[in-house]
Amino acid sequence: MSAIARDAIKFVRVFGGAIMESSPHLYISALPFSPVQSITYEQFSSKYSNLAQIVDGGEPCWPNLQLTIRGHDNWVASVTFSPDGKRIASGSKDKTICLWDAETGLQLGSLIGHTDLVYSVAFSPDGKRAASGSTDKTIYLWDAETGLQFGSPLMEHTAVVFSVAFSPDGKRVASGSEDTAICLWDAETGVQLGNPLTGHIDSVQSVSFSPDGKKIASGSKDKTICLWDAETGLQFGGPLTGHTDSVYSVVFSPDGKRVASGSSDKTICLWDAESGLQLGGPFTGHTDIVWSVAFSPGGKMVASGSSDKTICLWDTHQQHDNLSDCLEVSDMSGNV
Hints:
Elements: H1 3-21, H2 26-29, H3 39-44, E1 76-81, E2 87-92, E3 96-101, E4 107-112, E5 118-123, E6 129-134, E7 139-143, E8 161-166, E9 172-177, E10 182-186, E11 204-209, E12 215-220, E13 224-229, E14 240-241, E15 247-252, E16 258-263, E17 268-272, E18 290-295, E19 301-306, E20 310-315, E21 323-328
Antiparallel strand pairs: 1-2, 2-3, 3-4, 5-6, 6-7, 8-9, 9-10, 11-12, 12-13, 13-14, 15-16, 16-17, 18-19, 19-20, 20-21
């Protein structure tokens, strides 16, 4: 995408709400409020010299926060991008999943069916379907284009469903629950595949498929991570132990060789996905619960989000002082 197009998208994100509610001349009226170093301002400000001018307090560059989306009636527990980056799905305590245009923030639809808080939402790899897990103990499968529900709710869990994830080929959905089990589902038919995966002794907070779809990682309040054969449902070895409190997030590296985990013990751990051995010591630096972890596309960095209001970036290849940078954000108490 050209620099001009990227700048124009930022212009629309920042001023689109006001422009939509008013007459077209606001495209011009918004120009003086554009950052003076933006391409839009540099290209067009001289052509409209009679417009109002910002004398003091103007921004030199576009702000990091470019879009705030509002529409839910209660707090938002989960957000995810579609694979093409054009849509966002959000799950809320208002019992709904909303679909949004990621460029403009406009609501594209509202998926209604759950009867309680929606804790987790996920897009299929092709972006055509979505899955959601809820406090109502069910998983729903949705047509992400029309917002229609596929079939009936998936009901096997006996407690809150905290996490849902699609397999890389989009054919299966994994769900983790407060009932300590992981269930596998056919993403087309909604039929449960085999028996629940059991081994944890407390709530399953997070589930994740390996990039090749052959393994599943799960993190639990029992302070452990388990690795499972996604075909047979058998556990690979014993639980991975090292955390001293609940594990809220697990994720595979892009090459599938490592697993990262975030915990209430304020640390991030790295694990060998083949042997289950911990790779080095815990990453320490957060001062509160680590809710979410994610690998960079190249697998060299891990990002972590915490209740301490920071996002930290970690170098996974350094033997000491893994912390690369920490970014302070507003209150963080859910998935990021």
